[in-house]
Amino acid sequence: MRYEVDFLVVGSGVAGLSFALKVAKYGSVCILTKAEASEGSTKYAQGGIAAVMYDSDSFDKHIEDTLIAGDGICNREVVEMTIREAPERITELVQYGVNFDKQRGGKFDLHREGGHSEFRILHHKDNTGEEIERGLLQAVHDHPNIELKEHQYAIDIITQHHLGQRVTKHTPGVECYGVYALNGDTKQIDTYLSKVTILATGGIGNVYTTTTNPITATGDGVAMVHRARGVLRDMEFVQFHPTSLYNPNERPAFLITEAMRGAGAVLKDLNGQEFMQKYDARLSLAPRDIVARAIDNEMKLAGVDHLYLDARPIGKKELMNGFPTIYAKCLELGINIAKDMIPIRPAAHYQCGGIVVDTHGETSIKNLYAAGECSCTGLHGGNRLASNSLLEAVVYAHNAATDAIERVNSIAHCVAVPDWDAKGMVLNEEMVLITQTRKELQEIMSNYVGIVRSDLRLQRAFDRMNLIYRETEDLYNRSVMTEELSELRNLIACAYLITKQAMARRENRGLHYSIDLLNNK
Ligand code: FAD
Ligand code: SIN
Hints:
By secondary structure, this protein is of the alpha/beta class. The protein has three domains: 2-236 and 352-410, FAD/NAD(P)-binding domain; 258-346, Succinate dehydrogenase/fumarate reductase flavoprotein, catalytic domain (Flavocytochrome C3, Chain A, domain 1, Alpha-Beta Complex), CATH 3.90.700; 432-480 and 482-517, Fumarate reductase/succinate dehydrogenase flavoprotein-like, C-terminal domain (Methane Monooxygenase Hydroxylase, Chain G, domain 1, Up-down Bundle). 36% of the residues lie in helices and 16% in strands. It has 14 helices and 17 strands. Strands 1, 2, 6, 7, 8, 9 and 16 form a seven-stranded mixed beta sheet that branches. Strands 11-14-13-12 form a four-stranded antiparallel beta sheet, with helices on one face. Strand 8 (178-183) and strand 9 form a beta hairpin. Helix 1 packs parallel to helix 11. The structure holds flavin-adenine dinucleotide and succinic acid (SIN). Flavin-adenine dinucleotide binds at residues 10-16, 32-35, 39-42, 44-49, 128-129, 153-154, 200-202, 212-213, 216-217, 220, 255, 350, 372-373, 387-390, 393.
């Protein structure tokens, strides 16, 4: 099938839904999403969204905290813009119907997380993301101009390459005409022509064995732009969350929010001893790169596969009221967090880099925008400050929408785009070729390109990946397209970009840490 829309949105998390709501007055909007609409990282966000709401805090402090966490490579202009815009975007979320917890007097109840010098995290209990996703989805469903299509998997963005022209990294004026998408019901590949396209496809967590990210986080948007020869940056900065619940067979790993440490929970080793004093004066509330590395080191020194978070100092009443989801989840597993310490380990959590965008959210490819976790705005630099990502997503969805609205009427659909050509392709009947390769890739990345790296580990990962890449491209060139195959290609592309950019960075900075570069810090 062929479709024509004004605004095409790929992804139905906070970034995609926010953009759709903003542009809907100005043309037809179609949201494609590869799973159920609510599935994505947004739904799993616990801690909340950072914003300066009252005079007890200041923009300058939030800016400073963001710059410090980013380890000197944030874009200051972007940081200032994002943080100053935050209160307006929060007000809009509330207008869309999102609820944040309030204190008795009516003021927002604010939490504090690692790296923040003030209490400034707006939250809804410990399930803020679920509440944001619920509110935005409701608003989208209520809007007559927005069509939301579930189980539609975007395979590739369409550019001049699909018109038979050679496109390289140096080709000027590459344009996006829409996307090819695999229809989950018909199994056919549909052509979506759009005037404006936005990628809001989320993160890359599934490049690793242990991740807090849902199954949808396979770096599809990043890989699509890589294939279309667009500009990507900072892929080596993968953030590992220090405290995912240690429950080996659970995927995604369940998160234990950093807000718990903000409320008084403390990291301990298996003997019940605190250890963060060896690593940073801010103890359990140090920025998460430092905390994750400290945990990784303690685990390696002791030869164990988890440590503990002691949440008992918070007290049972506050644990039950403030962290009901975590309380219930742990209880289900026989852990009473008011009495027992919580077993934790780090897990891949957030991709700081991605598709490079300007302050309007536009990528290096014309008429293609990106927002949310798949994008690289310059806000996070080498390490994202906790709870700055939901904020970045709403700010950039707004900026991209403002720009796209101004331009949409001057753009025409490119009707010369051909439909997807599947001639000569055969059904791949051996799923093991895909599932086993995916596992291998995750193992390689976890063991060699994880929290702590080395030249040898990176080189080894790169060599192994090359083989996996060639085998998978062979399979792709002869097989009927499936979501599993496409996701595998995307994961390999992201793994390659992370590794290659990590090899190129000759300094320990932010989330990139190599034992061979210790003296450079
Ligand atoms: P997502 O919400 O991940 O949405 C991506 C969407 O794209 C999904 O709908 C997916 O199905 C769709 N999609 C992907 N590929 C395709 C494709 N090929 N075709 C069609 N559709 C596709 N950040 C904070 O600021 N505060 C927090 O407290 C916080 N807590 C977190 C807790 C957890 C457990 C996790 C995993 C993340 C947390 N984060 C937090 C990070 C934050 O939630 C994410 O960065 C943010 O929600 C990303 O939003 P997004 O819209 O970019 O992507
Ligand atoms: C958390 O709640 O600890 C996650 C916050 C974040 O990733 O920003």
